[in-house]
Amino acid sequence: MTPTPVDAPRRRGRPRRAEARDTILDATLELLAERGFHATTMDSIAERAGVGKNTIYRRWPAKDDLVIDAFLHFTADLHLRAGPGDDVYASLLEHARSAGRLYADPLASRLIPRLLGELQRDPAFADAYADRVVRPLREPVVALLVRARERGELRANADPELIADMLVGPGFLHMLFAFAVPQADSGYPDALLDAIWHGVAAPA
Asked: Whole-model pTM?
């Protein structure tokens, strides 16, 4: 066997396993948007992703596990990136803009209504989705707001849970009821946070 030179160039790009995982997750999201939960089967996902079913079952023993991981993949940019000393307003603005980009994605307007229907229908799936997707997205935002209140950056009576709701709710409204409310433009996340901030920030 010919030894590999120490200075041989490394292959660039993502590992094949990571690429296969992303391909499967993307295929799952596409099919969920096109067909809904019940018509999206492991067989159809394998066919769309161009992989064998065993490849999927080695990673995800049940369809619910795969679907939840697909939504984790879809919402990855929503995770708050803020350290203890970071500027609160800037961190929330980045978060709000990430949410705005997600809500503006045409895939979201087809996926989310189907997701909400399944969450209502299947309590076990709803519990798992809350534990693995919703709480990991929401809790860092609430924690950031709690720290801001403790430092005196928010009003003493500001409710972090309520503020977190206000940051998320309007985006859902515009996505789900786009036919009934004015279209949200690219400046909407900035305007939303500005409106909220004026009501919760501590007086200068």
From this structure: 0.85
Q: What is the pLDDT of residues 85-131, one digit of tens each?
A: 789 999 999 999 999 999 999 999 999 999 999 999 999 999 999 99
The burial class, CB within 10 Å (0-12 / 13-18 / 19+), for 145 is buried
Pair 110, 193 in one domain: yes
**Residue 94 and residue 54 share a domain:** no
Measured CA distances, 139 to 66, 133, 146 (Å):
23, 11, 10
Containing domain of residue 84, as a range? Answer: 75-200
Angle in degrees, 0-180, between the axes of helices 63-74 and 16-35, rounded to the nearest 10: 100
How big is the chain, counted in residues? 204
Q: How far apart are CA 204 and CA 202, in angstroms?
A: 6
pLDDT at 117: 92
